């Protein structure tokens, strides 16, 4: 591990080569080699002894190719070309056994080509690059890259810190007081990995600032997209049960909070009002304005019964024979985990007090958790603005997610899956409400701070993720036509 005191000026740099930690080499009886990795197995035949020596040494750590006697660089390159996504390039220096940085492939497309970086060529940190700590070292990643860059020594971090604005390697070397060749090599590795962008044709114009495809992506959205899908990262993904040995399984449903309890109406009919699914789909509309009259507890009870109640519970088994509870509800949920909770903020109802209620899907009951007028007003006013309506909706349903319920099972995809669940629940609420003759609007955005405070959430263990407005339709049907604007869905 590099020391924080390692602040000496590095000496001349050198290129080092190694394999990813998950790469091994298998030797057959006839002496032929196969490179094994998470991206698949690659037979490389019986290479020359010097090439075979390099390959074996690369499984133990970085190798300076110049130290291997009799090495045919062209032959070695032809072998490397068959091993994309498996080779780590490091930038070392002759004064330290610790490299300045390493460029690690994170996908099968990870092939590093180092660009020529002239001393006066404009360059800048990519707006999509982000830094974080990993195993005590600074790591730079980007959703546009098939690599990550690990900065092992503080001198490389000094160079990185000088790149937020357009500059040149000459200027960076002057600012951080490092030799120009070292700075140039660091920048070349960062640029080859996609963390630094270079000016087009020697100008201060960077492609990511003019490419219409990239302009339409925010760094946060593109990062979220790339990390919740396979193909552009090497993080664990799917049902890994990574926390099964250290954390107990989260409860199948949030326990009902303390407060006045209101049992909800349980309808006897399995299909609301006898409407078919096709009729509900064709009849669904989003509205911005609601009638003065408001849904009753019977209306809300029937809606939640058909859309969100717990229909049954079962026991599932995780690795190490750990048991956990799953449920069945009207809308789908990955692994039957159902991490979403519902809070109803009531503005007006003929038989329900104004306030904020938690819905228990197991008990099919509401519990009053907050009647503070200021909290109710803020939630409802935010909903009014989001919908673009003239007055707050009669009832606002806020969906929250108990994050650990999914992440206890899933890696990398848990929050993306939660957002899919929000859409599924919103659609289910829309269709059931249409069958019941209610007016609805699924909101596009809510305030995480307001919901956390008003609901008393243990943020970020439980976070707001979706909103849904409910009321009764106005008699003037034209007011209830779908509003094809930016408010609501």
Q: What's the story with the biggest beta sheet?
A: 7 strands, antiparallel
User: Judging from the principal axes of the Cα atoms, what is the shape?
Assistant: elongated
Radius of gyration, CA atoms, in whole angstroms: 29 Å
Tally of DSSP β-strands: 22
Uncertain segments: 476-487
Q: Briefly note the structural class of the backbone.
A: alpha+beta
Proportion of residues in β-strands: 15-25%
Strand arrangement, major sheet: 13-18-17-16-19-22-21
Helix coverage percent of residues?
A: 25-40%
What does the secondary structure layout of this molecule look like, with pairings?
Layout: E1 13-19, E2 24-27, E3 33-36, E4 42-45, H1 49-58, H2 73-80, E5 87-93, E6 96-105, E7 123-125, E8 130-134, E9 137-141, E10 147-151, H3 154-161, H4 169-176, H5 180-192, E11 196-198, H6 207-210, H7 212-215, H8 219-227, E12 238-239, E13 261-263, H9 277-283, H10 297-308, E14 312-318, E15 322-328, E16 340-346, E17 355-360, E18 365-370, H11 373-387, E19 395-402, H12 403-407, E20 410-411, H13 414-436, E21 439-442, H14 448-455, E22 462-471
Antiparallel strand pairs: 1-5, 2-3, 3-4, 5-6, 6-10, 7-11, 8-9, 9-10, 12-20, 13-18, 14-15, 16-17, 16-19, 17-18, 19-22, 21-22
Helix pairs in contact: 4-5, 9-13, 10-13, 11-14
């Amino acid at each position: 591990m590099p020391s924080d005191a390692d602040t000496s000026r590095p000496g001349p740099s050198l290129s080092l080569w190694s394999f990813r930690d998950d790469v091994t080499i298998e030797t057959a009886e006839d002496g032929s080699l196969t490179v094994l990795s998470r991206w698949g197995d690659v037979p490389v035949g019986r290479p020359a002894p010097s090439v075979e020596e390099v390959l074996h040494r690369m499984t133990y750590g970085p190798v300076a190719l110049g130290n291997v006697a009799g090495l045919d660089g062209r032959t070695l390159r032809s072998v490397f070309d068959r091993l994309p996504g498996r080779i780590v390039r490091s930038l070392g220096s002759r004064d330290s056994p610790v490299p300045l940085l390493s460029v690690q492939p994170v996908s099968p497309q990870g092939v590093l080509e180092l660009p020529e970086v002239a001393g006066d060529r404009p360059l800048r940190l990519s707006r999509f690059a982000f830094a974080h700590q990993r195993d005590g070292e600074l790591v730079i990643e980007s959703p546009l890259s098939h690599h990550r860059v690990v900065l092992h020594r503080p001198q490389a971090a000094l160079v990185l810190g000088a790149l937020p604005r357009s500059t040149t390697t000459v200027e960076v070397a002057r600012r951080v007081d490092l030799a120009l060749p070292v700075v140039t090599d660091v920048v070349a590795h960062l640029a080859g990995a996609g963390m630094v962008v270079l000016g087009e044709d020697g100008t201060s114009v960077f492609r990511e600032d003019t490419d219409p495809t990239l302009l339409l992506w925010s760094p946060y959205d593109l990062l979220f997209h790339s990390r919740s899908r396979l193909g552009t990262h090497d993080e664990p993904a799917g049902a890994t049960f990574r926390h099964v040995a250290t954390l107990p399984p989260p409860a199948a449903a949030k326990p009902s909070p303390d407060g006045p309890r209101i049992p909800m109406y349980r309808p006897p009919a399995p299909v609301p009002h006898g409407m078919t699914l096709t009729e509900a789909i064709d009849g669904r509309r989003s509205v911005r304005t609601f009638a003065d009259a408001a849904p009753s507890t019977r209306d809300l009870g029937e809606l939640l019964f058909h859309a969100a109640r717990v229909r049954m519970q079962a026991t599932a088994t995780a690795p190490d024979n750990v048991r956990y509870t799953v449920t069945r509800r009207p809308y789908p949920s990955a692994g039957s985990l159902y991490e979403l909770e519902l809070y109803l903020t009531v503005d007006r109802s003929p038989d329900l007090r104004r306030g904020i209620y938690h819905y228990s899907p197991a008990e099919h009951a509401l519990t009053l958790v907050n009647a503070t007028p200021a909290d109710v007003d803020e939630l409802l006013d935010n909903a009014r603005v989001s919908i673009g309506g003239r007055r707050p909706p009669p009832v606002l349903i806020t969906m929250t997610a108990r994050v650990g319920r999914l992440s206890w099972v899933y890696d990398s995809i848990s929050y993306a899956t939660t957002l899919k669940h929000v859409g599924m629940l919103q659609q289910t609420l829309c269709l059931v409400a249409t069958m019941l003759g209610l007016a609805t609007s699924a909101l596009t955005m809510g305030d995480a701070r307001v919901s956390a405070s008003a609901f008393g959430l243990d943020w970020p263990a439980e976070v707001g993720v979706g909103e849904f407005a409910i009321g009764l339709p106005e008699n003037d049907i034209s007011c209830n036509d779908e509003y094809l604007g930016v408010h609501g869905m």
